Amino acid sequence: EPAQIESELETHWERLHQGLSYYKPPSSASASKVKEKKDVAEPLKDFGLRLSKLLGLDELQSVQLLQCYLQEDYRGTRDSLKVSSRCRLWLLLNGDTGGLE
Fold it and tell me: Which InterPro entries does this one have (predicted)?
């Protein structure tokens, strides 16, 4: 119900605000840091940078979100994560190749 939703939002507004404020906008400095990272595979870097543009989020945070998703929530097989230079993990975003095949 709308009244219950409003009540829950009011009760938890500060926590919600803090969570949303954590995320920063994209920046060239962050993009450079992602590109320089040695401990992140190139396909993840590339996809993280594209994800940053799609979501309007900081590049480092986008890569971190992607890594967290893959480590904690992704339920597919390791083989389904193999990334070709043509698809760049589009399967993870929308369930198809996005016309990139």
Answer: Nup188
Q: End-to-end alpha-carbon separation of the chain, Å?
A: 44
pLDDT digits (tens, 9 = 90+) for 33-54: 999 999 998 988 998 999 899 8
Average pLDDT over residues 22-42: 94
Do 59 and 33 meet the contact criterion of CB atoms below 8 Å apart? yes
DSSP per-residue string spanning the chain: -HHHHHHHHHHTHHHHHHHHHT-----HHHHHHHHH-SSS-HHHHHHHHHHHHHHT--HHHHHHHHHHIIIII--S-SGGG---TTTTTHHHHHSS-TT--
Q: What is the pLDDT of residue 10?
A: 92
> In the numeric block, which tokens belong to residue 74?
């992704």
Quick check: pTM over 0.70?
A: no
